[in-house]
Structures
1.
Amino acid sequence: MGSCLSGDRNNHAIPYSEIASTSRGDGVVTRSNSNRKITKKSSSPSIDSPREMSLHRVPGRMFLNGSTDHASLFTRQGKKGINQDAMIVWENFGSKADTIFCGVFDGHGPFGHMVAKKVRDSLPLKLSAQWELGCQVSPPVLVNKDSGTSRCDPGRLGSSNDIHVMLKESFLKAFKVMDKELKLHPYIDCYTSGTTSVALIKQGRDLIIGNVGDSRAVLGTRDQSNSLIAVQLTVDLKPNLPREAERIRLCKGRIFALRNEPETFRVWLPDSDSPGLAMARAFGDFCLKDFGLIAVPDISCHHLNEKDEFVVLATDGVWDVLSNEEVVAIVASSPRSSAARIVVDTASRAWRSKYPTAKVDDCAVVCLYLDSSESATVTTKEQQELTKDMET
């Protein structure tokens, strides 16, 4: 949920093995006695590369509340402080007319808002660069962390399989470069701050998703009886997942929950009760990178068909209170121009109803429509309402 916990938990820890396998929350317990110092090379966080500063003027790139024929996006600050969620829709991505990039990013820790926005701005550029580089190599090579190296059949260049292989490699390399850049960043302290990322590329009817953390992508599609159903496309990468827990333990990281939140698994340093990160993968959070936390994306590929209608990307401020089915039903019944906003509105009400004593989390939603047959023209009044919560 992008929040930080505080307080002494020495007398409230529960061993991982004694906790049920459900979880909620993605915050961190902030280090109270970090001795780490940062040498700032820039006096202002607004100073960055000219290329990234010019991004705000790129046609087809949206990162504020609004909509197009293809997408609706909306974010709103919760009740925990500055909005640490970020989002993006980039049409004609990589100068390809049939390609769209989408992403949502949920920051956490004291500088999580800066990390989320940095990844929002930089990751697409790195992904595009890796993709362009991959297109110049034949046959493309994919280094898979689980199954070694595989190659595309040179006789099938241009097929969906080759696109998937090339984009998978691009995702893996771009995420690695992105995390390295954050570690070396001159003014953003990523030691106990980080962000999730669900990033998606749609090219034609091919869909590639790279995921770190517990933001989520869900597909709205039709079953054989033409009923609308929700299909979860990503896995919430929590520390309680067996494969994640095994890696963390092998690296000497610890996993347990606090007694006052037994459903939330967190990752802790081997000899210190910090930082308490409630996810197994993330950009940043370098205090845990030697103890099992990774920024390697979990990648999935999909070839879309005529029954697939839209994809919803959202941070866990939405998924903590709304089911996949509820979100898909909301999007399907809402005008395209305001679908993302309506999902956020519904999630905010659900927070107040389900967790009346908790602070509402930040929410960010991107609804990507898989066709543009329905007009999504937005009136001036609607646009003013949509951008009411626009980030500055």
2.
Amino acid sequence: MRLVDRDHPEKIRRPLGPDETAAVRRFCGAGQEVRPGDVELVAAVLDEMHDGRRVRLWLECDCWQDAKSQPRLTARVRDEGPRHFMRMHRYGEHRCALASFRQDPEPEDDEPDDDTAPPGQHNPLRPVGDTLDYLDDLHEGVARPGGSGGSTGGRGDEGRRLPRLGRILHTLLDDAGFATAHVDELKERSRSWDRLEAYAANEAMSPELTLAQVLYFKPWTSLNEKMAAIDALPWPDKKARSALLLFVADEIRDGAAVKKTSMGECRVRPAKGIRAGGRDQGLTQPPYWVLAVIDRDREGYARFREAFAQHAYSFARPAPLNSRYERRTLEQLFGVMEWVKKRGVDVTLAKPLFEREVRQLDGPSLWCRPDFELTFRTVEAAGIAPRLHRVVIETMGADEPEYLERKSRTHEIMKRRGILIEHRVSDDDGQAERDDAFLRRVGAKILHLAGVQRAGTHRKIPGV
């Protein structure tokens, strides 16, 4: 194996040593036993490949003897997650242990969750590691019923397991940048599908197939035309032919996701229904992100097979959310971000769609998924290096004892990630006052941590 320059692949940076090569194959090969020291060797290689902002080097394998081209791996960093390898399908399949690929030596995702696990030590919800796994596996010529061509991953909201299609949707939105927002982006009005099209065009599913050829964003596209285009594509072995439709729906009614256009309503009505993510199981608080699977039924007719819907903040800014309660919280947070920006503090907001790791010095890592996280740095001062700060935000949408007790367990873990601030949201006359108190508290905490001196202890935040 050897590291090659990403921008000039013909330029070899260095070959991997025998120990590094063996460690990579054990670390990423399913069924391989990871040995002590492998993780450190692999982490060092990944750090060399990715500088935290962009990929600098690719890792070229050596399993095709005497071949002019070899399979390659790239490095990826997902929102505060560790660096990990990604296969680059356009460069061919591996003939070594990497042919059966995994990202890390953790237990496989299809292992069942342990309901008796201590708080934070459950099987964490993770992104789908490979875009090729967005496609169903073939089983005797028929796609898996219900589109379960892969593992379900960890637990979803309210203790339920997130369906595979929901996990794919979360991965798409996370990778395309919809789960984060910097304060400078709040006034932008870029179209969602422009960002998605640019993202999909750069994701390879096989040597000949990109995600952009499978994923589309216009629900008025004819199903027959789309499946005819899919049928004409070179297709990966052992995968069923299908397409994915991703869009923001105006509403969901009578089992259909509805997109309103100047030509009337487009309706996406899956044969196997629409499942919902988060607490909004009634699907009565639009808009919604909708991801639908298009394939052919047993008679060969094109159809919408199934779909998954996730609450969105708005059409202009479709950040994925779990409920209308979170929408209220997010509205306040956007206001805080714009206000502290005027005081010189740039805040980035994240809506965690997957588990966040909390490392312990004297025990295994813990896992949690806050509702929101705000990150920012200390305002620069002479001789002082800017320090990164994190504020964790939790929306409290109920007051039942069981709900509060469950939240208290996870909040203890979240407090190890950053300053925890709760926002209580309820359908009563006191909500405006609670919003005002929450907004002031978050704004004051950010200014304090950032080292900004406030002009007055009771200065009013504009718009409140």
